[in-house]
Amino acid sequence: MRCAIKTEGITKAFGSKTVLDVIDLDIESGEVFGLIGPSGAGKTTLIKILTGQISQDSGKAHIGGKDSRKLTGEDHRHFGITMDNFGLYERLSCYDNLLTFARIHGLPKSSITDALAKVGLAEAAKTPAGKLSKGMTGRLKLARAFMTDPDILFLDEPTSGLDPVSAGEIHRIILSEKAKGKTVFLTTHTMTEAEKLCDHIALLNEGKIVEYGSPEEICRRYDHQRMLKIHLSDGKDMQLPHNKEAAAALSELIVSGRAETIHTTEPDLETVFMELTGKELSA
Ligand SMILES: Nc1ncnc2c1ncn2[C@@H]1O[C@H](COP(=O)(O)OP(=O)(O)OP(=O)(O)O)[C@@H](O)[C@H]1O
Ligand SMILES: [Mg+2]
């Protein structure tokens, strides 16, 4: 699989504070990658480096094979970005917000209507951005990121502060972009979001990647108990070790119809993060 984003030893300090400390990442083309970490971990800083907004102190970052420090305006058309500092003009309508962007990039007006339709904002084309709900604002930012039909999307906390329905709409849009073969680099504080969307995640804590893998792999890695929890038809609960030796007992419970539900004991991502960082993520 082709690598869409590759970093080698990225390090960045602000003053005496090292914010990113030797970051190595390989992100495959067509995957949803999630960078997860507590507030201040360095997530936005890494996106800014990858998109050429700031420079690293050392190490290399390649986006679509190009050095992130040498990206041209044309290269920028190949990735879409949503982040806090990419604001909207509150008094301009949704359409006019995108028109401004279309003019900067020399895009046809059809790209505006296409982008609004894609995120379900066609009806709100004339509504001023400042009058949109939070969920609609999130979708308008996504619409703008989509306008150049980019190969790579950088989404910095795309669902931050949204209710579950609005977040679900954004998840649907992200997954439909993935289905078209786009690469998505997202940051989030929400573990359920990471579990739902991401092929791979990296856990960033105090500037270092402390875990990497698919959400399932990571949770399995932290299954210290390795037990099966069985809820029996008489209402009682029991546990068996998750190994070959327990197979006969387990089989008997299933055959006799006494086992109602069986669950493994691996922790969820939230618990893994707590264990690794000592911090709660869903701030
Ligand atoms: N331009 C800057 N000058 C000085 N310090 C900065 C600058 N940008 C970021 N920092 C510091 O770098 C650290 C990482 O910030 P960053 O915004 O990358 O974190 P984050 O993981 O995105 O956090 P959040 O989840 O709150 O968005 C923080 O301590 C922040 O204060
Ligand atoms: Mg941030």
Describe the structure.
With 283 residues, the protein is an alpha/beta fold. It has 3 domains: 151 residues, P-loop containing nucleotide triphosphate hydrolases (Rossmann fold); 71 residues; 41 residues, no CATH class. Helices cover 33% and strands 29% of the residues. A 6-stranded mixed β-sheet has the order 6-7-8-3-9-10, with helices on both faces. The protein has a 4-stranded antiparallel β-sheet with strand order 2-1-4-5, with helices on one face. A hairpin with a 2-residue loop joins β4 and β5. The longest helix is centred in the middle third of the chain and has 16 residues. The radius of gyration is 22 Å and the shape is globular. The site of magnesium ion (MG) has 3 residues, from α1.
Count of folded domains: 3
How is the CATH topology of the largest domain named? Rossmann fold
- Can you name the CATH architecture of the largest domain? 3-Layer(aba) Sandwich
Write out the distinct hetero groups bound to the structure.
adenosine-5'-triphosphate, magnesium ion
Could you tell me how far the N terminus lies from the C terminus, measured between alpha carbons in angstroms? 35 Å
* Structural class by SSE content: alpha/beta
Query: Segments where pLDDT lies below 50 for 5+ residues?
Result: none
Helix coverage percent: 25-40%
- Helical region count? 10
